[in-house]
Amino acid sequence: MGCKPLNFYYFRRNFNLNIMLRTHTCGELRLSDKGKNVILSGWMQRSRDLGGMTFIDLRDRYGITQLAFNMESDASLCEEERTLGREYVIQVAGIVEERSNKNPKMPTGDIEIIVKKLTVLNTSKLPPFTIEDETDGGEELRMKYRYLDLRRNPVRRNLELRHRMSIETRKYLDSVNFIEIETPYLIKSTPEGARDFVVPSRMNQGQFYALPQSPQTFKQLLMVAGYDRYYQIVKCFRDEDLRADRQPEFTQIDCEMAFVTQEDILNTFEGLAKHLFKVIKGMDMEDFPRMSYDEAMKTYGSDKPDIRFGMKFVELNGLVQGSGFQVFDDAELVVGINAEGCGEYTRKQLDELTEFVKRPQVGAKGLVYVKYNEDGSFKSSVDKFFDSNALQRWAEAFGAKPGDLMLILAGAAHATRSSLNVLRLEMGKRLGLRDPEDFKPLWVVDFPLLEWDEETRRYYAMHHPFTSPKPEDIALLDSDPGKVRANAYDMVINGVEIGGGSIRIHNRDLQKRMFSILGFSDEEAQSQFGFLMNAFEYGAPPHGGIAYGFDRWTAVFAGQESIRDFIAFPKNNAGRDMMIDSPSEISQDQLKELGLQIRPVNK
Ligand code: ASP
C-alpha cells in the first residue's frame, strides 16, 4: 500500500539544517532530487562494509534509503559509522546522489545519500530477532517485543491495510446516512454464545459489569430511539478458547437499520463489500450469489462454503446401499467428492488421506476411494463389494472422468458432511484451487432459528435470541421449533464467515415467547432483558442489522488466515499479552477496595 510523503513543506521553506530532525522520509527521495541537501532520520537496518565504502540501509515507516560513507574522503565519519549497531536511531545530513548500482526493486533504489554528518539519536540493544520481512523470531518472542515486530514491513503493511479499510468503511457508511454512535463497554451480560469477561464494581460491591460480546442490545435500542442507520467500529470481548482466527478482544463493524427488510440489508452491505473490493483491492465484483443454509450444508458440508472451486458433494445412498457393504448399508449418509486429476495417487498418498480424515479434528471412521484409471478401468478400496459396472454408475453420478479420484465417507449425516468438508478443503488446497487473490463472496441465507443440543436437551438460538423467525414459520414455533427458519444471513468470502446478522424481533410478546423457548423463566427474561422488552412497548420500528469481524475481513483481503498480525497488540493462545504480561495479579489493597475475597498468599 502506497503512502503519501510527509508534508514537510513548511519545514522546507524554513530550512534550517541545524534544528530539523529530518527533511524527508526514508521512502521519498528519487532521482529528481539529485543534488539536494537533505536530512534523514531512522533506524539502521543493515550495514555493509566494502573496504573503501560503507553502505547503510536506513529505515523508517515509509521505506529504506541507502546511505553511503566514503572512507577516502571522510575517514573520521567512517570510524564513527563503524560504532553503529543494528536498530540504532540515527540522523544523517548529506547530498542525494545517483547510485551506480541501482536497485529497481526499491522505490528509492536509484539514489543514495552521500553522508556528510552523522548523529546518533539513540542506541539500541541487539534486537532478539531480525527486523526483516522474513524474521528468525518465533511467535512468542515477536509478541513479547511487539514494538520491534511492528517495525517489520509485513506487519506494518497489515496495519496500513486495516487503516484504509476502516477509513473506507466509514466513508461508505457515512455516504448512505449511517451515523457512528459509541455504546458503553461496561454493560451487563448479553448471551451470544460465549462467556463474558466481567469487571468488579467498586461502588456496588459484589456486583459486576460485563464487557460487551457485541453492542447488540444497544444498537437495537438506538433503533427504538429513531437513529435508523447506526454503525460503529467497535471492540467486542468474548472469553472463548482461542484459535488463529480468534482473539479475546476483537473488532466489529457493527451496523443496524430500521424500516428495512432482509433484502434492504443485504443490498446495503453488499454495497459496502463491493466498495471495499473496489477501492482496496481494485476489483469490480459481480452481484454476490445467495445460497440457503440447507443447500450450503448439502453441497459443501459447511455454512461457510469456499466456492472458489467446485468439488461439490454427491450423495450416493440410493446407488450404494443394499450391496452387503456394511459400512454403507448402516450409514445415514454416504457422500463423496471427485478430485479431478488425482487418479494417479499412490497407495502411500491414499493412506495419508485416510489418516487425515481419521484425525480426531476431522472425525471420519475411514475413507473409501475409487480411482478412475486412464484406461477406463477402476481400482477401489471396496472392489470386494462393487464390480466395475457399479463403479461406473458412481463415476457417472460424480461426473468423473478417467484420471479422477472419488473419495467417499459414510456415517451420521451431519458429522459425515463436516468431515467431508474438511477433506474437500484439503483437496482444494492440494490442487491449488484456493488462490488467496481469487475472491468469491456469497451470502448464506435462511439459517435455522434454533439449534438442538443433545447434551443439555434444549434449544439454543443459532444466531442470538433477538433474531426473528420468518413470519411464515412462526406457526411452527410450538409444533416443530427445529424447523423454523430465521431471517438470518452470513456474508462469506473464500470459506471465511466475515459477517452475520438478522432481522430482529421488535414485538414484546414474540421476544418473550422466544426467551421461553430458549428455557428462560419469565423472571429470568425480565431481569436480564426487561430493558429491551420494555423498550419494545414504546414504538419499536421493524429493524435488523449485521456485524462484520473487522480483523478477519482485513486478514482475508490480505490472503491470510491468522488475524494476529492485523491487530497491533494481540494476545497469545493462552489469552496472555506477552509484552505487558497480562493478566496479572492485583494487590491485596485493590482486592479489598473491590470487596473481593482476599486469598492468603502462599509463599
Ligand atoms: N451481534 C451479532 C454478532 O456479534 C451480529 C448481529 O446480529 O448484528 O454476531
Tell me the major beta sheet. Answer: 8 strands, mixed
How far from one another are the termini?
Answer: 53 Å
Total E-strand runs: 22
> What share of the residues does DSSP label as strand, in percent?
15-25%
Spatially, the strands of the biggest sheet line up as: 6-9-10-22-21-20-17-11
Helix content: 25-40%
pLDDT < 50 stretches: none
Round the Cα radius of gyration to an integer and report it: 30 Å
Number of discrete helical segments? 18
Shape: globular
| Bound molecule kinds, no repeats | aspartic acid
Mean pLDDT: 93
What is the structural class?
alpha+beta
Tell me what the structure shows.
By secondary structure, this protein is α+β, with helices and mostly antiparallel strands. It contains 18 helices and 22 strands. The chain has an 8-stranded mixed sheet, with helices on both faces. A 5-stranded mixed β-barrel has the order 1-2-3-5-4. A 5-stranded antiparallel sheet has the order 12-13-16-14-15. β2 (53-60) and β3 form a beta hairpin. Bound molecules: aspartic acid (ASP). Aspartic acid binds at residues 192, 214, 216, 500-502, 545-547.
